[in-house]
Amino acid sequence: MDRRWLFADQLGPHFLDARDQPVLIVESRSALRRRPVHRRRAHLVLSALRHRAAELGDQAVLIQAGTYREAVERLDEDLTVCAPTSRAARSLVGSLPRVTVVPARGFATSAAEFTAWAQRRGRRRLLQEDFYRDARRRLDILMDGAEPAGGRWNFDAQNREPPPAHGLGVPGPPGFTEDEIDEQVRRDLDRWQEAGEVRLTGEDGPREFAVTRAEASRALRSFVRDRLPAFGPPQDAMLAADPVMAHSLLSAALNLGLLDPLECAQAAEAAYRSGAAPLASVEGFVRQLIGWRDYVWHLYWHFGPDYRHRNALRARSPLPDWFTGLDADAVQARCLKDALTQVREHGYAHHIIRLMVLGNYALQRGWDPAELTGWFHANFVDGYDWVMVPNVVGMSQHADGGLMATKPYAAGGAYINRMSDYCGGCPYRPAVRLGPDACPFTAGYWSFLDRHADRFAHNPRMARQVRGAARLTDLPQVVAQEKDRGSQAP
Predict the structure, then answer these.
(1) What is the pTM of this model?
(2) I need a surface site. Which of 128, 328, 407, 447 has the fewest CB within 10 A?
(3) Which residues contact 423 (CB under 8 A, 6 or more apart)?
(4) pLDDT in tens, 205-220
(5) What is the mean pLDDT of residues 336-357?
(6) CA–CA separation, 62 vs 55, rounded Å?
(7) How far is CA 342 from the centre of its chain?
């Protein structure tokens, strides 16, 4: 049996063909040198690689090298590898003479199944909802025979409630005990940073995410038992004092390959069938797993290598230093300050903070989408190329011109006020668009609509907002105010 080469996002048992298959694990220093990387992300990946090698013992060879190519040439064996998740890594393994690439794993829908769905006769657009329903049928998840459980495919309308005034009152995720491997990773990162070999962002701290299969399985059980029942209705809400709320925090473990999305979906469905979790919450979680996550993965490949460079809105402004430096202390706007603080201190924030605070602010100000994609990739513990390119270029920044989303996810302070408790303690007022107490999201929203009025005037989901902007008598002053703000921290 050929030795299986495991990349850092292929660390679960389902990436091996047999329990005793010999394994190669490579720790490539060049992977940390390509761009600045959040310390929490670097620690998590290195710790996961080294823990997997330690678990496998003599079954695995761990090679620490400058590059992947150097490590493979040093080993000098025939290898197989599950198709990597990035274009760069696939190009590399395809160029190595003694490496055989087998189909990708770690997703519920295969490349062949996605292609068959995408090319089905009569399909005009690759709508996520259509893909999700097809996956539910094919995988027999939350189905009662030929019909969806509860008679509905989608409970999204029930899962958009604002946060409860007194919080959710659910247990938080489990903690993880660091060991000597974590301590060595921390020492190595300190040494490499002092030597100028790596550029680290963010702050260090106790490890908060799973690095082994056992830890990831415990995190899954904890979520299904403690937080899944409350997950659905407030999943789009934000609370300043509760950044976790009822979210699973399983994306890092999933993207390291420690969990398989299908096992997570099946665990959630079992909770629904046993009466331990309501259908709306379970359906919302399942949709994120076998719907959105797989959809993003396949679009990364389907749209081709040039997709990452799309810039339909001609957004060219560079990311300001306070943003790239995670300088939350420079920011007064409470929601943005809290979002940057979460990223700086944890390398994580849940999906609505990413989309409607961080991404929304960048979209309104025309920041370069390629730069923003790199920032998300580097600063989030669950950030991988396939994750961030579609999510940022397509979903967040509308830089693909509408291939993924029919409208840009731009919103003013009213949305943040409705879906969070941030505005109460903020020096800016969500209903004000002009003057010293104008909410930067509200002013930015109207300025964004003015800048792109010609593009969105005929968009069925945006035309009314564009007409509303045109009726604002103070719009020229709002636009001028935003230009004066420039790249300053709000």
Answers:
(1) 0.95
(2) 407
(3) 334, 335, 413, 416, 417, 429, 430, 439
(4) 999 999 999 999 999 9
(5) 97
(6) 12
(7) 14
CB 383 within 8 A of CB 294: no
**Which residue ranges form the domains of the chain, and what is each CATH number?**
3-102 (3.40.50.620), 111-173+208-302 (1.25.40.80), 306-485 (1.10.579.10)
> How confident is the model over 379-396, as a mean pLDDT?
97
Q: Which of 263, 246, 267, 245 is nearest to 254 (CA)?
A: 263
Query: In whole angstroms, what is the distance from residue 3 CA to residue 13 CA?
Result: 14
Q: In degrees rounded to 5, what are phi and psi of residue 7?
A: -75, 175
- Let me know if 320 is exposed, middle or buried by CB neighbors in 10 A (0-12, 13-18, 19+): middle
How many other CB atoms are found less than 10 A from the CB of residue 32? 20
Structure tokens at 164: 């409860």
Q: Please give the single-letter amino acid code of residue 348.
A: Y
Closest CA to 10 of 45, 41, 38: 45
Give me the amino acid identity at 202: G
pLDDT-derived band of residue 378, with 50, 70 and 90 as boundaries? very high
The average pLDDT across 274-279 equals 97
Token couple for 31:
């992977």
Summarize pLDDT for 69-106 with one digit per residue, the tens.
Answer: 999 999 989 999 999 999 999 999 999 999 999 999 99
